[in-house]
Design goal:
The protein has a single domain, classed as Phosphoglycerate mutase-like (Rossmann fold). Helices cover about 35% and strands about 15% of the residues. It contains 5 helices and 6 strands; from the N terminus they run βαβαβαβαββα. The chain has a 6-stranded mixed β-sheet with strand order 3-2-4-1-5-6. It starts with a strand and ends with a helix.
């Protein structure tokens, strides 16, 4: 199985006056524009995925919607286990119904994404420190089963590289 981890694009800074509920904080116009270019780059690397699961927070959901529009990936499905602060083991357990898919994309936040990547690669969420830039993506491959420590890292790309590919 191919798993693509995508960090949400550039969002507005935390501002309780503008967004009393930080879950509602959106992408900036520049973040939206740059990620549209990055999504074209992702499309050139990954023409399609079978399933897109996204954190329900607005900035992640907007990022997933851009992937649908610009990369031609499927409409995102809500995946609460990608919310910030959720344990990677919970996300992996919730992914099991999708284990028969050939490919899926997960759109979420830091530090949760690098912890999930570390867990999938090594079985320990604190074992690796991967840098997911806003709008960046990683490709993990599970040669056999979707399990902790069973993944291989094929690439981790900054949004700048994705934009150049687009």
């Amino acid at each position: 199985m191919d798993v693509y981890l995508v960090r949400h694009a550039i969002a507005f800074e935390h501002d309780p006056a503008a967004w009393p509920d930080d879950r509602e904080r959106p992408l900036t116009p520049q973040g939206d524009k740059r990620f549209r270019q990055a999504a074209r780059g992702l499309r050139s690397l990954v023409p399609t995925v079978e399933v897109v699961l996204s954190s329900p927070l607005v900035r992640a959901w907007q990022t997933a919607a851009i992937l649908q529009e610009r990369a031609g990936w499927p409409q995102p499905l809500r995946f609460d286990q990608l919310e910030p602060g959720r344990p990677p083991a919970d996300a992996l357990a919730a992914l099991q119904p999708h284990a028969s898919a050939g490919s899926l994309a997960l759109v979420g936040h830091e530090p949760s994404l690098h912890e999930l990547a570390a867990y999938l690669l090594s079985g320990d969420p604190n074992s690796l420190q991967l840098v997911f830039r806003k709008g960046g993506a990683a490709h993990l491959v599970f040669p056999e089963s979707l399990a902790a420590g069973a993944a291989e890292l094929h690439w981790l790309l900054a949004p700048k590289v994705l934009r150049a590919l687009g």
